[in-house]
Amino acid sequence: MLNIVILAAGQGKRMQSNRPKVLHTIAGRSMLAHVINGARALAADNIVVVVGHGAEYVQQAFAAQPDLQFATQQPQLGTGHAVLQAVQQLKEDGRDDVTIVLYGDVPLVQTASLQALLDAQGQGVAVLTEYLSDPTGYGRIVRDAQGKVCAIVEHKDASPEQRAITEVNTGILAAPTAQLKTWLAKLTNNNAQGEYYLTDVIGMAVAEGLAVNVAHPGAAYETLGVNSRAQQAQLERLWQLELARRQLEAGVTLADPARFDVRGNLTCGQDVFIDIGCVFEGTVELGAGVYVGAHCVLRDVTIGAGTRIEPFSHLDQAVVGVDAKIGPYARLRPGAALADRTHVGNFVEIKNARLGVDSKANHLAYIGDADIGERVNIGAGTITCNYDGVNKHRTVIEDDAFIGSDTQLVAPVRVGRGATLGAGTTLTHDAPPEKLTVSRAKQLTIEGWKRPVKKV
Ligand code: UD1
Ligand code: CA
Question: Which among 126, 261, 333, 345 could disulfide-bond with 120, CB atoms 3.0 to 4.6 Å apart, if both were Cys?
Answer without folding.
Answer: 126
